[in-house]
Amino acid sequence: MKKLLKSSLLALASLALLTGANAKTLENGVLKIATEGTYSPYSYHDKNDALTGYDVEVAREVAKKLNLKAEFIEAPWDAMLAAFDAGKADIVFNQVSITDERKKKYDYTAPYTVAYAALVTHKDNNEIKSFEDLKGKKSAHSATSNWAGIAQKYGAQIVTVDGFSKGVELIISRRADATINDSVTFYDYINQRPNAPLKIAASGSEPIYSAAIVKKGNEELVNDVNKALGELKSEGKLKEISVKYFGKDISE
Predict the structure, then answer these.
(1) DSSP three-state, residue 239
(2) What is the pTM of this model?
(3) What residues pair up with 180 in beta bridges, in sequence order?
(4) Which N-terminal residues, if any, form the signal peptide (predicted)?
């Protein structure tokens, strides 16, 4: 009797956790996740060409909590969001910074990353020493990224690229003056390319929170993902994944 009661409670708990996913996702048993796949160390391909990274692992663990199969849809930032807007994915896990502007269009889950802005320039650039020095300078970014918004706020001219790696390539070739991203991404890039002529010219002091996004009004899916993230946090899994990629906990 006790075993039957326990099984029934587990079944009810699983059903409750799945309630928020949309009908198509439930029907197929799949959680379609949009991500870049070129944004190390968050979402990228390893030496065996397997998709991995902090966001990818967090997304997989969330899908597992929801008893759904994780299916990833990869594209550069702007194309990724366009695909999500077109209904090609249920959720985006790709370091989407929480902004008031995006809140008008999407619903956010609870944040799972806390980061700080880093202003990156060529190592020989002595003109840019602060964010204020970006005025009139060329800053390379994905068009709709939060980092582009920060650069514009300081008066920079945005040079559109597909992601951080493409942005720093323009800096190295002196076709752009700067880019902004989080310091973790910069140090990961330098770790892989120690001779890259780049530096952090200035660092932000305000924390920037990132979360997954879902379609506006899908409160059930937000609640289910938040429950899964909460469990991963209390179990120490979020910290474990974070330490694996960064050597420290960036989840809070």
Answers:
(1) helix
(2) 0.78
(3) 119
(4) 1-23
